[in-house]
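Reposting from the mailing list since nobody answered there.

I have sequence plus structure tokens for a pair of proteins and want to know whether others read the tokens the same way I do. The first protein:
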Amino acid sequence: MFNNQPVTNQTINNAGRNFKAGERVYYILINEEGFKDDYIRVQIVKKEEKTNHWGYKVYRSNDYQIDTSLKYFKSYFVLDEPGYYFMQIFSFDDFDWPIIRNDFWIKN
């Protein structure tokens, strides 16, 4: 889930998918089953409009150490390039299938 405010109990219902370039995009991953590993990989992929078939480019990829006693992970990112993106989050034991994937837009 994405939000333009830090994710708290009060803002968790204000999810959005459209953000302005240069603003913080807050996100939270809630995993009711808990996390198996101490690390996750958060990958942001941009859909490129200048290719014949809307190619994809890994825009950013970061590994995070997480607190496995919690059933959620939250953070934020800032993107300056307008476009269509999706975020996918992987467990370190399986980089073929994301735990979650969601898309969003960055606009001027």
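The second protein, same order (residues first, tokens after):
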Amino acid sequence: MEFIPAVILWVLSVVRLPAAFDSHRGSVFRATILAAVACTLYIPVVYYSVDPLLGGRNRVGLVTLLSLLLGFWQFRTAILLAAVPDVHVRRRQLAFGRWVAGFACSAVTVAFLTSRVEVTDPNLPLTYGDQLGMAVFLWTGSAFIMWICVDIARVCRRNLPQMHAQVFRSAFALIAGGCFLFALMLLDRVLYGAIVRIQGSENATTDILNVFYWFGEPVAVLLVSLGLLLPRLTEQLKHRAFGIRIRRLLLEVRPIWNRVAANQRSMVLEKHRASPLIVLSRHAETQLHRRIVEIRDCEMARQAPNLHLTPRERSVVERAELALQKRTGAGAAS
């Protein structure tokens, strides 16, 4: 189970790779790649393997927490850029987030460097939690992540009514639910540490908390990932559906174009008849647009005054024109 969040986040990072240097969408990629690094380093076998490479003394634990904090900060930045329409409010909240992230990262770094953590151990809070530095390290990181999760859920919930597209409402609802679950996972770990110190690790309460954590963390990651992917997946499905419709219309237009252009070769680009293989054309939309234009040109040509489309042919041409107009309108709106 401990590999699942890391795998999901790495897949999401690869999917978001094209937007890595986009000024508006780059925050999501940075958030996912940083979170993927943190979740990967948190896996015990990876933790024990990487720590000696960094000089030992649990430095990989510091890198893990810093990656997680920066990832959550970038994720909050992405949500604010996408969900908050008021420029002044958004700018103020982004500035506040940068200040809090800088303070939290500085605090956990100083706290870690002032602690004695010589022996490599992924369970830093349990093993070294009695030190003041480690307590600051733990509580500062926990408080920052908790604040980020609650704030993201608040932003999503507050701005949901302003989103007219159902896909974006659903996406932000998933993100809000995932962040709320992340907050519960963090609370779970804090309670787990407190109970272990009082009663030890072998009791029913810690068993329940462990089960809740190991199942809840992948679900939280999955909810946020689905929320981030939903708009793109929906757009891709719409694009594929449109492509299928265009190719079907191209097949229906083919015999009409063949008949109309038969005696008007001077008004069309291609001098040969269109075959059924036209449906496999790489640029089906461009092919359909050109043939519709040529049909209309031939229809209005003075040298062919007796050329008329049948009612069925006119219906096919009008449906093709309407599909192309909707596509053009959607492209202009985006």
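Reply #1 (J.P.):
I read it the same way you do. The mean pLDDT is 84.
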